[in-house]
Amino acid sequence: MAHQNWENIILQKDFPCHFGTIAEKMGHLRYSYIENNDISGLPNTLREFLTLSRTFTHCRHALVVFFEPELQSKSFEYYQDFFWKIIQFLHEHDDKEWIEEDFPTNPDDPNWEFVFDGDPIFISANMPAYKQRITRNFGQCLILIFQPRRIFSDISHTSKQGKKAIHLIRSKVEAIEHLPIHPDLGGFGDPSKREWKQYVITDDYTSRDGQCPFHYTRRRK
Question: Which end of the chain is more exposed for a tag (fewer CB within 10 A), N or C?
């Protein structure tokens, strides 16, 4: 049911991200389903996915994780807190060291990205609590999308192709949501933006304030 609902939405011709639609049609997306919010197996699932992604670098692979719907309606804050607990859990169960010289560990660095198994990954949270930012609402499931940073290498916000793609996606989002593009969204490395704020954007037009809930933990030798 969760995947069918996802497929019905992502294959619509007005779905904002045409890259996602193409990936679905070409079979480049991988899926996982979590019951009872039991994330104990997620680190291994993500690790296996990244191995696959590194093997087929010509594909825009992404991992889509569906969470079993909550029995009762939950608030935006609930899902937001749960998201960061998941990210922290993944970090604490990562078998590989996060090399600070390769990837910044401070979320306030514009070049920061969450790293797992040695790979920087962009993660977006999609949840039923989104009432205004409806392009991030796929029904009753919390859905996390893990996208290795490398799949964006040829469509960066500084390239001609990337600028065109971003403009097209944002135009579609505005048409669907009837809201201006969220102020926290921007290109990777933009000194005025922060990646972590784009993982879970607010459900309105306000920028996320405060510090990132994620805490880097140096692995003991």
Answer: C
Structural domains in the chain (count): 1
**Considering the domain boundaries, does residue 210 fall inside one?**
no
In a domain, 204, yes or no: no
pLDDT, one tens digit per residue, over 99-136 is 989 999 999 999 999 999 999 999 999 999 999 999 99
Mean pLDDT score of the chain: 92
Range name among 54-63, 155-164, 183-192 with the lowest pLDDT average: 155-164
Domain membership of residue 163 (yes or no) is: yes
Secondary structure of the chain in the HEC alphabet?
CHHHHHHHHHCCCCCCCHHHHHHHHHCCEEEEEECCCCCCCHHHHHHHHHHHHHHCCCCCCEEEEEECCCCCCCCHHHHHHHHHHHHHHHHHCCCCCCCCCCCCCCCCCCCCCEEECCEEEEEEEECCCCCCCHHHCCCCCCEEEEEEHHHHCCCCCCCHHHHHHHHHHHHHHHHHHCCCCCCCCCCCCCCCCCHHHHHCCCCCCCCCCCCCCCCCCCCCC
